[in-house]
Design goal:
With 144 residues, the protein is α/β, with parallel strands linked by helices. Helix content is 44%, strand content 17%. The chain binds D-ribose.
Length: 144
């Protein structure tokens, strides 16, 4: 996971987990670009989702992480952006599979849905899992 830069963002519903994930990744020397939100004040998740996705598409970041209350709003927005394959994960199996099979470049999490330790475990597994290519590449090409 060396030379990995992660763009990360949340709305107010994912604010605590965003900060926890940033601390966690920094402790592993993984660089984070924090696009906000920076306070607990209510804000609009579509704007944050777009900012993170743009950093991934411009290669400023290798991958993106988005957190809101459910993870659903973030994933709906992210998946409307061409070139983004966002996976909303609530378990570690899906975190691995969405990299291996779908080459997901954005991970979405729901702070009001899963515990913090599970969120950190999902992030770790997602970041270290590789795309398998082969027949999965054909399917990813079909999405694009
Ligand atoms: C904010 O209240 C909440 O709607 C948002 O965090 C997210 O869950 C939307 O999908």
């Amino acid at each position: 996971m060396e030379n990995l830069t992660v763009a990360i963002g949340s709305d107010h519903g994912g604010f605590e987990y965003k900060n926890a994930i940033i601390e966690h990744l920094k402790s592993k020397n993984i660089k984070c670009i924090d696009v906000g939100t920076y306070t607990k004040e209510s804000c609009d998740y579509p704007k944050i989702a777009r900012e993170v996705c743009q950093k991934v598409l411009s290669n400023e970041a290798s991958k993106g992480i988005l957190i809101c209350g459910t993870g659903i709003g973030m994933s709906i927005v992210a998946n409307k952006i061409k070139g983004i394959r966002a996976a909303l994960c609530g378990d570690t199996f899906s975190a691995k599979a969405c990299r291996a099979h779908n080459n997901a470049n954005v991970l979405c999490l729901g702070q009001r849905v899963i515990g913090e330790q599970l969120a950190l475990d999902i992030v770790d597994i997602w970041l270290k899992s590789e795309f398998e290519g082969g027949r999965h590449q054909r399917r990813v090409d079909m999405i694009e």
